[in-house]
Amino acid sequence: MMFVHTDTKSPTSPLRALSVLVFLLLLIHLCTGQSLIGSSQPIVATRGDDITLPCRLDPAEDVTDLTVEWTRPDLDPRFVHVRRSGQELVSKKHPWFSERTSLFINELKHGNISLKLSRVELSDQGTYTCFIPGKEKLSSVQLFVGKFIYNVYFTTSED
Ligand SMILES: *[C@@H]1O[C@H](CO)[C@@H](O)[C@H](O)[C@H]1NC(C)=O
């Protein structure tokens, strides 16, 4: 717990206390270190496409020997692709994704855990999350799947 000392005699003290607090929160935020970066823009695909769902650890680190999890939280089981001890753990994987997912093995040493999804189905539309246990943050990527080829216009908001 942290206590912010405020001078009760000064009329500006609540404001000063607030700015100290904001500064501390900013510092904590900057110090939390690595995070996973997915995509702020949705990935748009057509049925049958082979696509890549981007996700990388920043700052980069070799994650070849770490556990990597891709999930769809709305599904049961939620696992799309799990890599553990250097190989894919297929036992808990949702059957929809059987033999359709892979990681880019040579990219793992650069912290790139992007997922390749082959032969996209309409049911693949959804929100995917990438996660490395032990790393604080998880990230998500949205996938939209269209039946036909069409042009999609969307606005993005950078965060
Ligand atoms: C991650 O690897 C994929 C596949 O090689 C590549 O398309 C993508 O650009 C890489 N991402 C980064 C951030 O290097």
The number of helical runs is 1
The helix/strand order is HEEEEEEEEEEE
Strand % is: 25-35%
User: How would you sum up the global shape?
Assistant: globular
Name the bound molecules: 2-acetamido-2-deoxy-beta-D-glucopyranose
Helix content: 10-25%
Alpha-carbon distance between the two ends:
29 Å
What's the CATH class label of the domain at 36-145?
Answer: Mainly Beta
Please count the beta strands (DSSP E, at least 2 residues each).
11
The CATH superfamily of the domain at 36-145 bears the name Immunoglobulins
Can you tell me the CATH topology of the domain at 36-145?
A: Immunoglobulin-like
Organism: Lates calcarifer
Pfam family, one: V-set
Domain Ig-like: 14-142
Keywords: Disulfide bond, Glycoprotein, Immunoglobulin domain, Membrane, Signal
Overview of the molecule:
Its main location: membrane. Residues 1-33 form the signal peptide. By secondary structure, the chain is α+β, with helices and mostly antiparallel strands. The chain has a domain at 36-145: Immunoglobulins (Immunoglobulin-like). The chain is 12% helix and 28% strand. The protein contains one helix and eleven strands. It has one helix at 13-31, and strands spanning 35-37, 43-46, 51-53, 56-58, 68-71, 79-84, 87-88, 101-103, 115-117, 126-131, 139-146. The strands form three sheets. It has a six-stranded mixed sheet, with no helix packed on it. A three-stranded antiparallel sheet has the order 3-9-8, with no helix packed on it. A hairpin with a 7-residue loop joins strand 10 and strand 11. The longest helix is centred in the first third of the chain and has 19 residues, at 13-31. The protein is globular and about 60 Å long. 19% of the residues are buried. The mean pLDDT is 84. The structure holds 2-acetamido-2-deoxy-beta-D-glucopyranose. 2-acetamido-2-deoxy-beta-D-glucopyranose binds at residues 52, 56, 104, 107, 112, 114.
